[in-house]
Structure formats: structure tokens, C-alpha cells
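The protein record filed here.
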Amino acid sequence: MDTMTLWHLTGWQFAALAFAALLVGFSKTAVSGANTVSLAIFAAVLPARASTGILLPVLIAGDVLAVLTYRRHAHWPTLWRLFPAVAVGVVVGTLFLVWADDAIVRTSIGVILLFMAGVTVWRRRRDAANAAAADSAAAGRPDGSASRAGRVKARSYGVLGGFTTMVANAGGPVMSMYLLSAGFRKLGFLGTSAFFFLIVNVSKLPFSAGLGLIDGRSLLLDAVLVVFVVPGALLGKWAVTRINQRLFERLVIAATIVGGLQLLLA
């Protein structure tokens, strides 16, 4: 694998990766989608393709902490609707990685993220006047997700989420847009996404290893970086109780837009 060991990093490079790992922890327990910034940092410091394999175990560490924090708030019917479509997306993403170069990957994911952010903003403005929809979502459960339109939307976002998480670990913003559009409140959003990404990211390990994106050198670097995920998660847990729902949604959408632009401009 074309990557760097811990011993080849400069002090500034290691500091950047440590900050990115801290941001992973924060994003998993506070503002999902913010870890697209971590993705950009890893890709800037490390070889772009190899960075996805190094980042994956760091993300899984954040997922474990998020599950421990929000496990009571997961909405399993939503998860079961998503998983089959996500599996399709992961397989397509794996095939895509076989031939796509870094530039194609970055551009594709950036366009998808910006498109999803735009669709979500439009949908939420359209639904803002519907008080009944807001009331039905107050318990942290999706509104109307069992309808035919809801199932189609879940499958569409599921395939895109599986594809983006496989090729660039960028599934967070896609799924954030889905959960927001489905009407999840903060705790339901965080609990559902925590289990979703723990299961999906663990399932990606054999694919990433098979592509040569994970090896002994990358895992050594991961073992050091995981230490920084914990304070980030604790900071996120402290911050999320101080963020109201409207601000939470705006931060998630803003993080998605920033991540998409970073990928396009990289």
C-alpha cells in the first residue's frame, strides 16, 4: 500500500491527523457530517486512496463511542430499511475503486454531497409550514417513512450512502441529509446514525483490506490516532445538549456543504 508509517510523519502532519481524529469523535457524538473535514485532512496529509483505509478504523472507534452514548435512541425500522440498499452501494463503490483515480472519486463525492444538501434545504423549507409534520417528528421518529415514497427515498439514499462511504468514507453527510429529511430530532438522529455507521464501517473492513487499503503499518498509525477520538467524543457529548434543534440542523447542512466543496476544490 502506498502510505506512510507513523515514523515518516512530520510534527505538523501528525498534529493535523490528531486534530482530524479529535474531530471524528466530535462529529460522531454531536454534529454528524463534520467528519468530512477529517476526510479532507487525511487526504491532504496521506496518499488519497490510502487515507481512506487509515481513516476507517478511526471512524469505527468513534462509532463505538457514539453507540455507547446514544444506543437507546436508535430507530431500528429505519435501519432495516436502509441496510439492503447500502449493501448494494458498498459493492458498487468497491467496483468503482478498482478503476477510478483520486480525482474522479473526489469530484463524484463532492457533487453528490452538494446535491443532497441542496435537496434537503429545499425539502425543509417546503415542509417548514407543516406543523403536523414537526409534531410527529418530536419524538425522534421519522415522519411518513413507511410510505411507498419513504421506502423509495430510503433505498435511494441507502445506495448513495453505501457508495460514498466505501469510496471515500463520506457516507456521513449523505445519511445526515436522509435522517434530516425524514424528520429525526437530535437524539434519534444521533442514535440511529451511530448504529448505522458502526455496522456499515465494520462490514467495510474486509473490502478495504482486500483492496490493500489496510495493513499493519496503517493499523499502527490508527492505534495512536484513536487516542484522540475519545476527547473529541466527550466534547461532542457536552456540546450536543447545548445546541438547539434548529442550530443542529443548520450545522449538519453546513458541514455537508463544506465537505462537498473541499472535495471538489482539492
